[in-house]
Write a structure and sequence with these properties.
two-stranded antiparallel sheet; disordered N terminus; 2 strands; Tetracycline Repressor, domain 2; Arc Repressor Mutant, subunit A; 2 domains
């Protein structure tokens, strides 16, 4: 894979995050079928069954929705054949140079952040390492945090897509929660472990990135709540859409932090995948069947 493609598909800091794969929407997440069903504990150190790969996600993670098939193109007039032929050849030299410059900036930032931490590295140092001027870095990334987090995380589109495509009779919490469990559990895959660990160290070592990550969670919550409100026809001020969205994103944040903790503790990939699936199913059970029976005082 070319460096520029790695940026587009995987992350804005390729060396930091690594690669994981999320499930497509139609993949199932085994779990309890009723509120009273017990979730089986994960094996101590046995091989875990990995979900089949789909879209690429970050260690944040951010997941891309399944692309919508393009409509058949109308035949171009004969007089435009030459112009259409140029378009078919892909990006021109100028665009390729732009992508290569962006990739150099990304790689330089990743190396510096891993060496010294996000807060200790200046944009000028990133530019120098990448062989460009400081203004070029800002042309590609208007804010420094953009080198770590996308301005519009692909996770948002994929999460909303999972909700929109759910079958009749399935709740928002079931659809969105199943998607979250499937996606985050893939952070336990062998190819993701190093990236998850490096991302965890960088984010946890920077107050700025921690604040930005919380802002992203709020934005994701707002987007999901808006979709739920639109679907249900909820009136302004009704709490149910936002409550449902907070619950789903709470599960996401909890599993993400669990993945980071375990990777930093040296937990192996198969064991981590099993634990993420186990804890994810427990959380999904609460989302689907409610909190009425949880943590009752004895």
């Amino acid at each position: 894979m070319l460096v520029r493609d790695r940026y587009l598909a995987v992350t804005s800091v390729a060396h930091v995050t690594g690669v994981a794969h999320a499930l497509t929407r139609n993949a199932s997440v085994p779990g309890p079928t009723s509120a009273g069903e017990t979730v089986a504990a994960p094996p101590a150190r046995g091989p875990a069954t990995l979900p089949s790969p789909g879209s690429v996600i970050r260690a944040v993670p951010a997941v891309r929705a399944d692309p919508v098939p393009p409509a058949p193109a109308e035949p171009a007039p004969a007089t435009k054949g030459r112009r259409r032929g140029r378009a078919d050849r892909g990006p021109g030299r100028r665009e390729l140079r732009r992508q290569e410059t962006r990739a150099r900036i990304v790689d330089a930032a990743a190396d510096l952040f891993a060496e010294r931490g996000f807060d200790a590295v200046s944009v000028m140092e990133i530019a120098k390492r990448a062989g460009v001027v400081e203004k070029t870095v800002f042309n590609h990334f208007p804010v420094k945090e953009g080198l770590v987090f996308d301005a519009d995380p692909p996770m948002r589109a994929a999460l909303l897509d999972a909700v929109r495509r759910r079958p009749s009779g399935e709740s928002v919490s079931a659809a969105a929660g199943s998607f979250v469990v499937s996606a985050v559990s893939m952070l336990g895959s062998p190819e993701a472990a190093d990236g998850v660990a490096r991302m965890a160290r960088i984010v946890r070592g920077s107050r700025i990135l921690q604040v930005r990550e919380r802002e992203i969670l709020v934005e994701l919550t707002d987007s999901l709540a808006g979709l739920v409100a639109e679907e249900t026809g909820a009136h302004p001020g009704e709490v149910e859409p936002r409550l449902a969205a907070h619950a789903v994103l709470g599960l996401y944040a909890s599993l993400l932090e669990l993945a980071r903790d375990r990777v930093l503790d040296g937990v192996e990939s198969q064991e981590l995948t099993a634990e993420l699936l186990y804890q994810g199913r427990r959380g999904l059970s609460l989302l689907q069947f409610g909190l009425a029976g949880y943590a009752k005082r004895r």
